[in-house]
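for the writeup, i need someone to sanity check this before i put it in the appendix. the sequnce is what the collaborator sent (i think, or maybe the updated version? ugh). structure was predicted straight from it, no edits. if anything looks off just tell me and ill rerun, i have time this weekend
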Amino acid sequence: MPRIVRVPSRRGPSALTGRRARRRLRELGAFGTVGGFAFLVDIGLFQLLYGHLGFGAVTAKTLATLVSMSVAFLGHRNWAFAHRDRTTIRRSFGLFALINLCTLALGAAVIWFVRYPLDQEGLLVIQAANIASIGLNTALRYTAYRRWVFPAAPRPDAVAASEPAPAQSGSGDTVPTATREAV
């Protein structure tokens, strides 16, 4: 009976194939679903606070953003990135908040640049810049969350390779023991 031999891929270890590609697509789908839900929470809570309960616009937006950010964190931690390594909640939420703060600043900078240095006042142009900044920030967040907030669990073969080799017995030279004894 012929023996099946597995030939290594030429694409290297970073290639997305088969199971890894399906996992990445599920992760992206969950990331988008969590983000969409958090977006609805943000919009809905802002509408409730500002439109019906009489909060100021900035206060309402700040509270809505904090709540939606917390909802997004819990959704990402417990669903979208649940298969990845877990760090302490303090560390992961701190990084999550920092990344969101940075992307908020980037989004505001895009709007500021289009509005003031480019002197664009039209709602359609400003909204187009807003949508572009949302797209850019979404890609940045996904990448940052995968890299720092919800890091991949170390592979067992990578952990074994990074461990120091056991110390050799003998006089400290690199000559194998059998050769040394024969000399």
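The helical segments are 18-52, 57-80, 89-115, 123-149, 156-162, 177-182. Residues 86-152 form one domain.
thx in advance!!
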